[in-house]
Design goal:
Low-confidence stretches: 477-496
Mean pLDDT: 83
Number of helices: 19
Largest sheet: none
Number of strands: 0
Radius of gyration: 22 Å
Distance between the termini: 7 Å
Structural class: mainly alpha
Strand content: under 5%
Helix content: over 70%
Shape: globular
Oligomer: single chain
């Protein structure tokens, strides 16, 4: 596609802008809800969602990625995949209803029964929008997707805050969880303007099902590895401990999640279109990798240095114990920034089986690490979780790039300038926090300290490290008008 670069950059701008809005909304709603609700309220909902989250991995069955990744796809194929998604969503809803008593028995908490029953409807709602969202992503209509994401977040947060103010307690969090996919599904149907046909045999979807199945199994393995600690904390330490850990984990991962949402989908779509053009594939990936690292590394430093202030400002004094947990988890921001883009590279180039094998090796490492920390409570879990991922980092990266067009030096080159710039900025910010932290209110310290850290970082990166032109080229790409021959209204393009 002649306009792939422009559409990728414009989509990236729209997604980054959207994720900035969503990030602000999530931070704001978290700060308000943390002052209205208790750690126990968050812990109760987390007990259910950490279990039902496993079911949620099967909602798409990896078929949205299959629709995006295929070089060509027909209306009959997408319609058949739509009905498969609906069938899977209905099964998951029933499964959630059936397992509700077992969730209650495992956590010894009767209130979880009604919460589980209420959340069951979300699986069918999600399933109804999977293929419509995939079509919009395949067409690289990221502006439309960002508007939908923002609308869904605003609606769900407004509902949750309203219910919390009126004393609904943990039901406010339940309502937020259901409202977001409901609004999203309605919007993608309206925007895609695609009506699924009847399912058909012999449409050639078998390879797509294999692709989706591999991705789903990959996601399942990774989810279990990354979330087992929440199950164990809820079981052995109770809702309060899980609430503290869960809020710290959620906040520390918020930048990574938003960055993945902003960059991941666009990168996957663009790289999938270039999987048979090795030169452009490598160039696009390394530029995207550099961009992700340049945003991830300073966020890691900011989170580690100002952990106490972040928790105090966002959650309030009653959550101060979560600050230690938050700081112990900050290395994972950097680690995920390094390894997540490699996953996009593997899947978009058709190496999803390798990605699954890596996940199967990673999960036991995380599980053993978490199990080691469980006797020491939330702090022990946070420390061991970060330590395990740190030890696994180099083997993970080496395995991902083995036999590909990428070398370790390619990745080091992408990492070097942002890392050195962040070290300098961190040193200046730490000295400011050390000498002035006790003199300034937490919010003022965050504003001034963050301004110093990111200001020094940008100066080092753009001028000392000579990266100014690199980012100017990206900005120029945003200004290039898209070619007129692209028809964004095509529901199922024959060849994107």
């Amino acid at each position: 596609m002649k306009d792939l670069k422009e559409r990728t950059l414009r989509g990236g701008l729209a997604k980054v802008f959207n994720q900035g809005i969503i990030f602000a909304l999530r931070l704001g709603s978290t700060a308000i809800l943390a002052r209205i609700l208790s750690p126990q309220d968050f812990g109760l909902v987390a007990m259910v969602t950490v279990v039902t989250g496993v079911y949620g991995l099967f909602t798409t069955a990896g078929l949205s990625s299959a629709t995006v990744q295929r070089a060509t796809v027909t209306d009959e194929q997408v319609s058949t995949l739509f009905w498969i998604n609906i069938m899977v969503g209905a099964i998951l809803t029933l499964l959630c209803l059936v397992t509700a008593p077992f969730i209650v028995a495992f956590f010894h908490e009767p209130r979880l029964f009604r919460v589980t029953i209420a959340l069951a409807a979300g699986f069918l709602i999600n399933a109804a929008g999977v293929q419509h969202s995939a079509l919009l992503q395949r067409q690289m209509r990221f502006v439309a997707l960002t508007v939908i994401d923002t609308a869904s977040s605003v609606a769900s947060i407004a509902l949750g805050l309203g219910l919390a103010v009126f004393g609904a307690g943990y039901w406010a969090l339940v309502a937020m969880t259901i409202a977001n996919p409901l609004v999203n599904t309605v919007c993608v149907w309206f925007t895609a303007k695609w009506i699924p046909g009847a399912p058909r045999r012999g449409t050639g979807i078998r390879s797509m099902l294999r692709f989706g199945g591999t991705l789903t199994l990959n996601g399942l393995v990774v989810y279990v590895g990354y979330n087992l600690e929440k199950v164990l904390l809820g079981r052995f330490w109770g809702a309060d401990a899980l609430g503290l850990y869960g809020r710290a984990y959620s906040i520390v991962n918020m930048p990574t999640e938003n960055l993945n949402s902003a960059v991941g989908g666009i990168t996957f779509s663009a790289l999938s279109r270039l999987q048979h053009d090795p030169g452009r594939f490598k160039s696009y990936f390394l530029k995207g990798y550099t961009l992700v690292l340049s945003m991830t590394i300073p966020i890691t430093a900011f989170s580690a240095i100002f952990a106490d202030e972040i928790i105090l400002v966002l959650l309030g004094p009653k959550w101060q114990e979560a600050a230690v947990i938050f700081r112990l988890l900050t290395p994972t921001v950097f680690i995920f920034g390094l390894i997540n883009p490699l996953g996009w590279m593997l899947v978009s180039s058709g190496l999803q089986v390798r990605s699954l094998k890596i996940a199967l090796a990673l999960a036991p490492v995380v599980i053993v690490s978490v199990a080691t920390g469980i006797p020491y409570g939330p702090r022990g879990v946070a420390f061991c979780y970060s330590a395990g991922l740190t030890l696994w980092l180099l083997p993970h990266v080496a395995w991902c790039i083995h036999g590909t067009m990428f070398s370790m030096m390619d990745l080091v080159h992408s990492l070097r300038r942002p890392f050195l710039s962040s070290l300098s900025a961190s040193a200046v910010a730490y000295l400011f926090q050390f000498y002035c932290g006790h003199l300034l209110p937490a919010f003022t310290m965050l504003v001034l300290g963050g301004g110093i850290l990111f200001g020094v970082y940008l100066w080092m990166l753009l001028f000392v490290m000579g990266q100014k032109q690199f980012y100017l080229d990206i900005v120029k790409g945003f200004k290039t008008p898209p070619p007129s021959e692209i028809r964004e209204t095509d529901a199922v393009p024959a060849d994107a």
